[in-house]
Amino acid sequence: MGIDLDRHHVRTGHRKAPKSDNVYLKLLVKLYRFLARTSLLPRPPSCLQPNPLEHNLLPQTRTYPKIETKNFTPTDAIPPPGRTDSAFNRVILRRLFTSRINRPPLSLSRLSRYAASPTTKSNTDGPSDTKNAKTIVVVGTITDDTRLLTVPKITVAALRFTATARARIEKAGGECLTLDQLALRAPTGANTLLVRGPKNAREAVKHFGFGPHKGKKPYVESKGRKFERARGRRRSRGFKV
Hints:
The protein is an alpha/beta fold and 241 residues long. The protein has 6 helices and 5 strands, in the order αααβαββαβαβ.
């Protein structure tokens, strides 16, 4: 077997494990790796599966003897213990691998907007109560927002809570769950709403871009007569933005 010279030292970008050495994060990865395993559902024997190639080649007038078929019960398709076949667990596992930049924090004000949306409430026609309301899941940090005056009663499962955010949620009658508590309560992600924080809200993202007319934020020491007044800021010096 030869060596692919073009792809010999090419490194794949996706992670298969977190870079962090946090033991709690590694335990969560171990838990959701166990839950995210997919099971191979049993298939009927090959003698019961029709072969379209033979069916087209043989004449249609010929009759064939009936084959005794086995009745497959629903218990045959039950996955083994621990295998949930849920895409929710695979998404949680993949987000546990990501870096902190790709796990942006989520504020209480944005969280309250998600809680007020119709998708978060129960599917029944009556008023939504705590039992039927969806659990909001965030693979990241929940932070406080002092601009929010009233915190709704919500159930949130997150990787981490700041002290003030946790206190305000619990004072409003809500719940702050860890992701391992969520796995016991909803192992398949049923009745949950998976959300993320704003990824491009960082200060560094405002400075990204190259060239004029990009709307990027300049790095300046100060705003005055002596700063950022040369090329690109005066028409007599090339162009003006």
